[in-house]
Each structure stands twice: as structure tokens, then as C-alpha cells.
Task: inverse folding
């Protein structure tokens, strides 16, 4: 059974940093691209980043490029999202997702990030 | 970026109704389209990928069709468990985008 478990969310001040983690199990982790998708309160879904299985390729939308960094440790079956220069617009539930072909086959339960002073 | 527009934004229906949701892309995305179901407080769940391929374990009352710029999600006979918000997603490139969502409510 595929399981994705996010951690690391919480309250952070504007301009601050945070690192999210997502521990994966139930599949051969290194064979799959992984992504982060976020959802602001009461809003729709927004893709945040993707990393390919080897970790050699990473992709971001303009809204987070230069501020967020996705990485993975295939020995630990874990993907990370390092977030810097956080603003109120970054407040959201952050989901990690397995991305076998660009779509999101499995999702974690989500981790809430709140940016507020 | 490719923009995805869903219609309607809200849909009221009865159990047993046939329901259709439309998703339009601002440019051709071939068949690189997925549909998700999301219930309040829960993560989205994949229903359909590559426009018409049913994800394993998803009931056969869900179906998807379309290619290019126009796509539909159809629920053949709405069940109580189907009241939720539905999102389309294009993945023509790594820069993927979602529609704004369609909330299916009880009439």
C-alpha cells in the first residue's frame, strides 16, 4: 500500500523559512517523480514543485521559483521542500504526491503551513 | 502557462442523476488530462488520467473523454459518496495547472 506522510508544517513569520518532509513507503521510491501541491484555505490546487526519480531534475512555477527548493534522499525514501522568504500568500496545506506521469496518483494527508506574525 | 477552465463552478444534482463536468484548456494538451475528487478536509483522489483511463479501484460510473482542448468527466449515476469537489489538471508539461474546481452538491 502506497503511503505518503508529510511533516514539518507549522506557524512561521513572514520572511521566514521552513522545511517540509514527506516519507514514502509501499513503492520503489527512486523510480518515481515526486511533487508538492498546495491548497490555500478555501481555494483550489496549485502545483509547487516536482523532482524526478534520480533527483537530477527539478521544476517550479514562477510563483515559488528562487524561494523554494525540492530535494530527495532515495536512501531514506523521503522528499523535502525547503521554503524561504515566506509570505502570507504561501499559507496553505502542502501535499506531497507521487507523480508517475505528470498526474498525481497518490497523495499524502497534507501539512499546514501558516505564515503570520 | 496553460489555463484550465472548468464549468460549472457549482452543480446541484440528485442521487441517480447523470452528471457532466467540462474542462477547457487554453491550448491543446493532447490527452494529458487528469481528474480528481476532493472531499472537505481530505487530500484529492485521482479518478481519471490520460483523459479517459480509469485509475485502479475507482468505480466504473466515473468516465472521462476528450482530447485537445475540451474534456468531460461524467458520473453515470450519482451516488451519495460522490458529493465532493472535482478538479481537472493538465500535465502537458512539467508546468502543470489545475482547473478552479466544480463543487457537486445535493439538490
Result:
Amino acid at each position: 500500500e502506497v503511503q505518503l506522510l508529510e511533516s514539518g508544517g507549522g506557524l512561521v513569520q513572514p520572511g521566514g523559512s521552513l522545511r517540509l518532509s514527506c516519507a514514502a513507503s509501499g513503492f520503489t521510491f527512486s523510480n518515481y517523480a515526486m511533487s508538492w501541491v498546495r491548497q490555500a484555505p478555501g481555494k483550489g490546487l496549485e502545483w509547487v514543485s516536482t523532482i524526478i526519480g534520480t533527483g537530477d531534475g527539478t521544476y517550479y512555477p514562477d510563483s515559488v521559483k528562487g524561494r523554494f527548493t525540492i530535494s530527495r534522499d532515495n536512501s531514506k525514501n523521503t522528499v523535502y521542500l525547503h521554503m524561504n522568504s515566506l509570505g502570507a500568500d504561501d499559507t496553505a496545506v502542502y501535499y506531497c504526491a507521487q507523480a508517475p506521469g505528470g498526474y498525481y496518483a497518490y497523495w499524502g494527508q497534507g501539512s499546514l503551513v501558516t505564515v503570520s506574525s | 502557462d496553460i489555463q484550465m477552465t472548468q464549468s460549472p463552478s457549482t452543480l446541484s444534482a440528485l442521487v441517480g442523476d447523470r452528471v457532466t463536468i467540462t474542462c477547457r484548456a487554453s491550448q491543446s494538451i493532447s490527452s494529458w488530462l487528469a481528474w480528481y475528487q476532493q472531499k472537505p478536509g481530505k487530500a484529492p483522489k485521482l479518478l481519471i488520467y490520460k483523459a479517459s483511463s480509469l485509475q485502479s479501484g475507482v468505480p466504473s460510473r466515473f468516465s472521462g473523454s476528450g482530447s485537445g482542448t475540451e474534456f468531460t468527466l461524467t458520473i453515470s449515476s450519482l451516488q451519495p459518496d460522490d458529493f465532493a469537489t472535482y478538479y481537472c489538471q493538465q500535465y502537458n508539461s512539467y508546468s502543470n495547472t489545475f482547473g478552479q474546481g466544480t463543487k457537486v452538491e445535493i439538490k
About this structure: The interface with chain A takes residues 1, 32, 34, 36, 43-46, 49-50, 55, 87, 89, 91-92, 94-101 of chain B (CB under 8 Å).
